[in-house]
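Input record (one chain):
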Amino acid sequence: MDFTKFHCPVCNKTFTENDDVVVCPECGTPHHRECYKSLGKCFNEALHGTDNSVAENYKNPEEKTEKISHSDESDSNNQKAENPFKINEKGLPGFIKFSAVQDHLIEGKHSSLFEAAVGKNQNYYMPRFAVISSLSKGLSLNAIAFLFPFAWSLYRKMYKISALIFAGYLLFFGLSFYNIYSNTDLITAVNDCSVEITENPEAYADYEWLMYEEMGEDLTDAQKRLIVALNNFSVPMYLTVLTYAIRYAPKVLLCIFGNKIYLKKLRKNIEDAEKKGLEGDKLKLYLFKRYGTLPLILAIIVGLIEISLFR
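The corresponding structure, as predicted from the sequence alone:
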């Protein structure tokens, strides 16, 4: 059998005529002998005995491969060695693996489908998805989700989670403003100072008077009332608890369970895409475009705003 039309799934190098090749007796996947020994098993062992067998990928390669002239054969082999995947001609990023043979199962789906749906940062998410799926383990720490829970969930198009976090932020600010504006003494003192600024701007040339521990004779009556109102102002316990809950609950939960939640969402996205009748590379292209990520600059702006408001 001519293995030069394939590449080793372990090292991604195209086979040559002089390579020592061993074939998995179960699915027919070819490996370099040294690569097989280093791995200790077939690369596609996870697919053995399933409906997703890769055996058909190595049958009748002449029928699956386009005929090329002898003059172009060397250039084609070099291109395969550098990039063993067929990349979409419309300029999509090269990290999307199209028609990839080296595939394994995650949540019962081909890993290449998750790679397409993740889009960017595959090297971070795919190993964690494999562990979560194989061990049914939900604990997988995500530092970015801890620092920027709203920006991260929005960037990864988990709109329901980002909407919940945003609703929590609005609730916090709404209760904070209510707590301030319901304090009539404070609001009255602020209004009196606002009126007095137009009549006596020299007294408000700076704000150092707000830091006075004792009220001096040089303070106006409005300033004295404002200082008293500020000293008497207190934040109720429920608002303090709510503040900490809104600030840290999304951080902790998404830090610990964010990767698992993201994995479950992507699986549902893949299932929804499969219901549309899409297959192969068309399915991967759809997943990448539909469920990839938002523009990074948008996530950065949202993240900066988020961390400035909830440090």
